[in-house]
Task: inverse folding
């Protein structure tokens, strides 16, 4: 199957649901997608381009949400989550505690999706920021096969949700006959001994290459793809991780700053048998290096080969 | 004569509620009394002048008009109004900012009658625009009123919402600016000037009216629905911060000062003098 851009598939799923549900709005902060054209044409009243105004995007979405509408608010991920952080905090997270506000944020450009576009467009803080907020769920899928589940989840869970999408076309990791249970929030893509990689989004594609390369050398590492970063089945995940000795988190985010590594660490710390967590991600600095994603990963020590070396070192300890 | 009597009722209610706010702030030793007093006549006109449609027994009655106090620091004034109307028991006012009270320093929606959690400035107008849009989509005839402070208009998000509301012809949305010309440290024109505010709002596509924010007659006229317009309406209400207590009026420190015992006696006397004879 050829690589797919997740946003196009998700928008198509939302479009189909808008046909049968006239209480759904789709708001964009002047951000497009080929799939959006049809939605726009068929629902001129319920698609609104609010302009380059992320703060107002959230406030208007909140007002519609308070009046009973389900809203999708769509923008470039770093601008959506960081320009309008306080609107998300107050008008979504805080208000959702006392009354239903079904506003779902679709942020496109997770991690280094916008590689050459530069550090203003890199999105390395959003997992930490969004999972910090009470009453907000966070979804970080690794491929397009989740989009139907995500649309259903977002519409039916009646609370704010941040949907973190990669901007690049990616191949599917899950064949239709082997689709994981969305509400579990994770899937074991590979089972191994001693070491388990725990990744999210694009990094699951990298992790899979690492795991398969190591497997050829006789080193079996586990791989858990985490796609629901809040409201996931933590007891099931704890049980899965308890079979390993070392956990390696892999994310396109700053390390030890509240992102995936922190999530995995807090999970294992609260289990009966805590395991060490080895974090892979970016150090505490923005990336001014110009280049594509592969190049930026190499510079940051996150190439497949470099990760394999580190895993081998961990395995030998 | 009937109109004179209506105005008198509003004036009396306003005097009574100013005293309530004074006692709340004095007892709690907290609160933003200056801004509460600058907007109190606006609130009284909306709630007692037959402008807003509401039901204290059913705060989220679907057909109610929506009122958002975007300048949430004036919550004490709105709490006094809502308690007086029976949205919740008036005894709660004495517990304003006390441990376990439903009434904190800023409005939130656990308080019956509050539409939006405010306190951080610049959020209310966008939310109100979303509500007004929802009303249009639903074919509902409720109106949405958002009261902002003039200092609040320094927030860029207010102007994003102004653009949005005008472009979507949200004629069911009314913005009220409490133009008391003061923020915390300074007079507005001395730090981040807003004049000519009315012209600026009009240039954003709003139908603008400037009124004396302490004239019930002018406020009543301004708040009446104008069904012919396709534009959202902005009412710049020229007000006096600390209105009603001589030593608080137009004095910067009364943004959030609390009267001491001596000041409290004077303030009570001045406000009581405006109450109708018993």
Result:
């Amino acid at each position: 199957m050829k690589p797919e851009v997740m946003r196009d598939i998700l928008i198509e799923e939302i479009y189909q649901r808008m046909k049968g549900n006239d209480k759904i709005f789709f708001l964009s902060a002047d951000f497009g997608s080929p799939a959006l054209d049809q939605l726009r044409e068929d629902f001129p009243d319920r698609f609104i381009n609010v302009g380059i105004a992320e703060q107002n995007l959230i406030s208007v979405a909140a007002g519609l949400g308070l009046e009973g509408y389900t809203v999708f608010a769509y923008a470039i991920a770093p601008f959506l989550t960081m320009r309008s952080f306080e609107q998300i905090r107050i008008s979504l997270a805080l208000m959702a505690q006392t009354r239903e506000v079904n506003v779902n944020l679709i942020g496109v450009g997770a991690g280094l999706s916008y590689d050459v576009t530069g550090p203003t467009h890199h999105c390395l803080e959003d997992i930490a920021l969004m999972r910090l907020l009470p009453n907000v769920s966070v979804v970080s899928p690794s491929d397009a096969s989740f989009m139907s589940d995500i649309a259903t989840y977002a519409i039916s869970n009646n609370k704010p949700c941040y949907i973190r999408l990669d901007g690049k076309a990616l191949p599917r990791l899950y064949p239709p006959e082997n689709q994981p249970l969305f509400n579990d929030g994770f899937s074991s893509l590979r089972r191994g001994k001693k070491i388990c990689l725990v990744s999210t989004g694009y990094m699951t594609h990298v992790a899979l290459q690492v795991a398969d390369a190591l497997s050829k050398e006789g080193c079996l590492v586990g791989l858990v793809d985490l796609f629901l970063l809040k409201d996931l089945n933590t007891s099931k995940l704890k049980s899965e991780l308890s079979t390993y000795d070392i956990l390696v988190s892999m994310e396109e985010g700053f390390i030890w700053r509240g992102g995936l590594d922190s999530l995995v660490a807090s999970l294992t710390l609260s289990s009966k048998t805590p395991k060490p967590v080895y974090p892979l991600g970016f150090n505490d600095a923005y990336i001014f290096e110009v280049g594509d994603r592969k190049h930026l990963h190499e510079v940051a020590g996150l190439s497949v080969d470099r990760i394999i070396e580190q895993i081998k070192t961990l395995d030998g300890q | 004569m009937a109109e004179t009597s209506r105005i008198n009722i509003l004036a009396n209610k306003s005097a009574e509620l100013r005293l309530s706010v004074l006692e709340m702030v004095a007892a709690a030793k907290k609160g933003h009394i200056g801004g509460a007093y600058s907007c109190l006549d606006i609130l009284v006109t909306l709630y007692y002048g037959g402008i807003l449609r509401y039901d204290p027994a059913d705060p989220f009655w679907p057909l109610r008009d929506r009122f958002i106090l975007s300048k949430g620091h004036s919550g004490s004034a709105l709490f006094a109004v809502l308690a007086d109307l029976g949205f919740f028991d008036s005894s709660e006012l004495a517990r304003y900012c006390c441990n376990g009270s439903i009434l904190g320093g800023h409005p939130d929606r656990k308080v019956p009658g509050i539409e939006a959690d405010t306190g951080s400035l610049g959020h209310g107008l966008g939310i109100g625009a979303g509500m007004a849009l929802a009303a249009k989509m639903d074919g509902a005839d409720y109106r949405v009123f958002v009261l902002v402070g003039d200092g609040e208009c320094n927030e860029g998000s207010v102007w994003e919402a102004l653009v949005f509301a005008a472009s979507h012809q949200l004629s069911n949305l009314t913005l009220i600016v409490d133009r008391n010309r003061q923020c915390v440290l300074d007079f507005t024109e001395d730090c981040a000037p807003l004049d000519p505010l009315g012209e600026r709002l009009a240039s954003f596509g709003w139908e603008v009216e400037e009124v004396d924010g302490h004239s019930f007659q002018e406020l009543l006229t301004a708040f009446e629905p104008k069904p012919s317009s396709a534009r959202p309406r902005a009412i710049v209400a020229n007000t006096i911060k600390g209105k009603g207590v001589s030593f608080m009026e137009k004095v910067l420190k009364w943004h959030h000062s609390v009267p001491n015992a001596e000041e409290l006696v004077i303030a009570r006397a001045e406000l009581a003098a405006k109450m109708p004879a018993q």
